[in-house]
Structure formats: C-alpha cells, structure tokens
Amino acid sequence: MNALGVYGQVSLVQGPYWTNLPLRLPGPLFFLLAAALIAIICYLLQRWSLFAGLLAGAGCLLLGWLSLQLAQQQALPRELLSLFGHVWAYDEPFVLFGREWALDATNGAVLSFMFLASGLSFLAALPASQGSAYYPFSMSVIAALVFSVTAEQYIYSILFLWLAVVLAVFVLAGGRPRATTGALRFLALASLGVMLLLTVAGYLPDIELGVLPTDSYPPVRILVILGFGVLLMLAPFHGQLVGIPAHTAPMVPVFMLSTFPPVVLYVLFTLGNASPALFEDQLLFTVYRTLGTATVAIGGIAAIGQRRWSYLVGYATLVDWGVSLIALGQGTAQGMAWAVQMLIWRAFSLLLVGTGLTVLLRATRNDDLGAFRGMLRRRLPAVLALTAGLLSLAGFPLTPGFMGRWPVIDELLRGQAVTAWVVILSGASVTVGTLIGIKSCLGPPLSAGRSLPADPRIARLPPGGDLRQPGIGHATLPPEGRRLRERGVPTSPRIAGLQPGMGAHSGSAEPRLPGDRFATLVGMVTGTLVLSLVGAMVLHPGPWIEMAQRMLGTLSFLPT
Question: Which of the four pLDDT bands, split at 50, 70 and 90, describes residue 104?
C-alpha cells in the first residue's frame, strides 16, 4: 500500500532497467491506462485518421484477447507474461482510498466483448471519416467503462458510467451540428437515469442489512425501474435509440450499442445479486416486458414507411432492441441469457450495417433510398453487408439475429401469443422496408441527366445569399455546400457548388475526390472481411454463446 492508498506489488524480477519497476499495475488499472494511452495517441493523430483507426482497432483487439483469456480463467502464454508481467499484476485488485476494483470471469467477459466489438468497429470505419473525435473519445469512453465494470461498489459503477456518458457526447456529435442535438438529448436522458440510480445507492446498505422499513421498498423499486428503463431506452425513452443511427456516422451506433448496454445489464445483474429483495415482486420484469412489446410495435410500424437508410436502420434496431427487452422481462435466468445473446448478435448485425453504409455513403453522400441507385453493381460487397445486417436486425432466418430471436418467439408462442405475433409482424415490417430499399439499388446509377431535384428555395437566393438560413434542405446540398454550412460560413449557391436548378446529385456537382479509389478499395476489403467474420460466427456460434454465459455470471436472484 503506497502513500495514496493504491495497492501494488514490488517487482522482484531481475533484468534490464525497464523491468525493475517499483510498482506493478493491478488488472483494472492496466486496462484503464492502456485505453487512456491509446486515446491520447489517437488524439494526436487526428489529422491521420487512418493511422488512428488502425491503432485503436489493433489495441482494442489485443486488450479484448487479453481480457478473454482472463474470462476463460486461462493462464496467459509465457511470452505475454515476459512482456506484460513486469508491469501488470492481472490477478490483483486495485484499491484506492479503501474502494476496490477487481477482475473476475464475469466482468472479464464483459470487457472482452466490449473491446472486441469496438476494435472491429474501428477497423470497419477506416474507409470514411466518422468524425474527428471518433477514435480518441471512443477510447476515453472505454477507459471510463473499464472502471464502471470492475468496480466492486455499486455507486462507483454508476459514477463511472456517468463519466462515460459525458465523454460519449463528443463521439455522438462528431463535429456535426445536426448530431449535436441528438448527443445532448442522449446526455440529458442518460443523466436522468443515472440520477435515479444514484438515489438508490443511499438505500442499499439498509437493504443488504435487512433493516429497511417495508413501506420504503416500493419507492426504491420504482426508482430502479425508471433508472434502468431510461438507460435501456425503453418506450417512451426510445427516441435516443432511433436518433443514434439516424443522426450519427454509420459506425457510431456499433460502438455505442456494443459498449453501454452490456455495462448497464451487468450493473443490473450485480445489483440483483447483491439486493435480491428489490426484485422479489417481479414488477420490474412485468413493466419491461410490457414496454418492450410497445417498443417493438413502434419500430415495426415506423420501419416500413422510411425513405432514408439511417432511419430505417434506427427503427430496425429499435425492433431488435425491444425483443431483447421482452426476453429480459421474462424474469428468468434463461430470459436473461437470451437478452445477452441478442446483444452479441445485434453488435454483429450493426457491424454489417455500418460497414455497408460507410462505403455507400462515401460514394453517394446521401442516405435517401433513391440515392443508392446502381450501387448493387458498383459496390456489391457493401450492399450485401447492408442487406445482411438489416435482415439480421429483422430476425430473418439464416442470419445472426434469427439465432437470438427464435428461442424468444418460441417461448412467447406458448403463453404470450399476442406478444409473439407483435414480434413476428414487426420483423416482417423491417424485412419489407429493407427489400424496398434494396430494390432502389437495382436501378441505373444517378447521372447528370437523372439527378434528384434541388431545393427550390436555392433558386430564389441572390448571388452571395446565405445558405445558413432555415428552410433550405441540408440533404439537398452537395458535400462542399454541406461542409461550408456546418462550419457556419455564409456563402452563395454558386460557391457552395450548387447552381440554381442543378440537381443535388448530378454528375457535375459531385467531383471525384483524391483518395476515393484507395478508400473504395479499403471499403471493399473491409466489407468482405466483415461478411466472412459474420459468416464464420453463424457457422460456429459456440464461442460467442459461451461468452454470453460468462457475461451473465451467477444470477442467484432469478428462477431458472
């Protein structure tokens, strides 16, 4: 114990001077500092996003592999111990001011999934920019979530979760004015949920000692239901779940929905094991099952009428998310297992969607369904990845999403037929919306003679008119005009690259940018690799199911 109260171990290993360190880092502190170091380096490499993405992706995959070894309780290879063992006491807890953070098989599995999914999303984001803050602040979010997962005290799990929420605002905004509103909405709602759960922390000592008055349990249970309900984005708090895919870069939803939900579920599980009296009346599960059904219905109704890919992805994700909440609402250990497995399949589905959209949006600069004409011939791997990801979110057979959804539907058909049919019909609605979108990819590509109409208000602007004024459709501007408008630069339609009456996607308004061929090549390679990875996962799902089981740990407060 040093002067700060930090537990460490003196290294007795003899060797070069760099191996004779006075302090070995405990397991959680090593992961925290490693993620923070990668974040700092990525921040310095913002101008070279390709190198920053490679560093973040490779670093997360390495950290994910290390935490997976710990989750499987396997001894690390001798070569790694010779490299890391001098500075990393991975089996020791980190103690600061009497508070403890420790690694075990359960939170090691949560960390491994978080690192692996994030690493894959970083590598898949290489073909196009996801925002200048994507890599450094995403790694900062991961660093905060490491301490949230490994904290032994409930209150510190919530506090570090809140810190991760604050840092995630920069990831969501990404330098885009339109996305900033959604990021602030996410911050406000998540902060509301955190405040409710922090209030619960004051009652936990009395609950664990069994001295809390009986009439005080209902208010505490309501706080738990509302707090976790907001963080799990139940209806009527589902708007932020739709807004994340709709208003952010394509790979941001993959990162956000692969990091926050597992941590929230882990905190819920640990709270249930520590204070089972809060869940004895099954009220939380009844509410989540009912609102989960409403969430599925809202997503299914809205998905079929969407005319933009980003909103179609948002509502497809909402349907899949609602089904996992229905599984959670069954109130059994098996239902929890289904919810966690669906979380893993959803991450891979969104990885497919994000990979496809990243490549396609770089080619079209617009997410309208009609803007993807001809992409089936020009960007076949990307279109296949997008289609497979959306069908997986819909729970279509022979996709990863179907593996997680079918056991839930089978269970619901036995006793909750209405809910089961809501799930089935909502999945069918997402499938129809996806097929409508894919149909638009079959047509001929847009050209100068087949352009989308520009906003008629642009034609009425005099030379030197201000494109920042409200009323002019942001999506109808070419990339140059959108970038100038987002930076707040007053300019005329001619300077913005859009002559009055010229189509927003005409050939003359969309010049080929330097590096497009290289980015296209990287995108095609990335899309092919992601498709191969998901195909291998479908054929060999055993390791991922085992990871889901380890993430659950022991749910002693639930019936089997």
Answer: confident
